[in-house]
Amino acid sequence: MRTPHTLIRQFTLWLGLGLLLIQPSLHAASEPIERIEWNKIPITLQIKVGHERMVHVPGSVKVGVPASLEPLLRTQSVDGTIYFLAHAPFDATRIMVRTLDGGQVLLFDVSASESNGPTHPVQVFVNPVDETKTGRPASPDARHAATTPYSYVALTRFATQQLYAPARLLHDRPSIIRIPVARESLPLLRGGSVDAQPLVAWRAGDRYLTAVKLTNRTQEPQTLDPRDLRGRWLTATFQHHRLLPAGSEADTTAVYLISNRPFEASR
Q1: What CATH number is given for 34-147 in this structure?
Q2: Domain residue spans in the chain?
Q3: Distance in angstroms (rounded) separating the CA atoms of residues 181 and 210
Q4: Domain 152-266 is found in CATH 2.60.40
Q5: Residue 194: pLDDT above 60?
Q6: 199-233 b/e (C-beta count within 10 Å ≥ 16 → b)
Q7: pLDDT in tens, 218-253
Q8: E-assigned strands of 79-186?
Q9: Checking phi first, is residue 63 left (phi over 0); if not, alpha (psi -120 to 50) or beta?
Q10: What span, in angstroms and rounded, lies between the C-alpha atoms of 198 and 188?
């Protein structure tokens, strides 16, 4: 039979182990993010061996690692974040990162050392050339980068992350600009069973993206069908395709609408 003294010792031991386990996570969450603008000058990135470093970039990307560096460096790209982990030291090496949506290329000069190098996350943002600021016409490549829209899938994923992802996973997309939208309930779906309320809207090039909250107003479950939507939309994606009766935990969802005009002009 365990004595109270033994139980207290075991509790103290487990508490200490728990604090040791969560301390790295708390430290990582408190680290500041360094913001760097891409201006066609290769970005210097230092990595501490054995410590993973995150780099947030504008959209999903493909990372090109030289064959000579593959045994020394692990890279993983997930939804606009690149994870760099060095297994051994190496000198500055040029790495090419290409965005999947627009094909834009970013250059990094990456090096790794055993010493106490920086480990904080980095956020890279890209501002398209604005000829009104420079006084010179933008180059054809710059105009293309500024006007090329994100794919429908990328825009929908962006809106989903803005609504549902934790704040620590969100990062700016300079080419996706938030715009005002009237947050008034409206009969967006035919039949009158589902209430619709715009939540937030963005503009990306010549595309408009709007997230709309949908709520079941009845005591019957509702199946959502894009054919019941009023308006002219390029795509419509439901977060969930079925709503439970009003008052249930699952009586509300969202729909992400993409159009070539603002929301008010498209509905």
Answers
A1: 2.60.40.1080
A2: 34-147, 152-266
A3: 8
A4: yes
A5: yes
A6: ebbbebbebbbbbbbbebeeeeebebeeeebeeeb
A7: 999 999 999 999 999 999 999 999 999 999 989 999
A8: 81-86, 90-99, 105-113, 122-125, 177-179
A9: beta
A10: 10
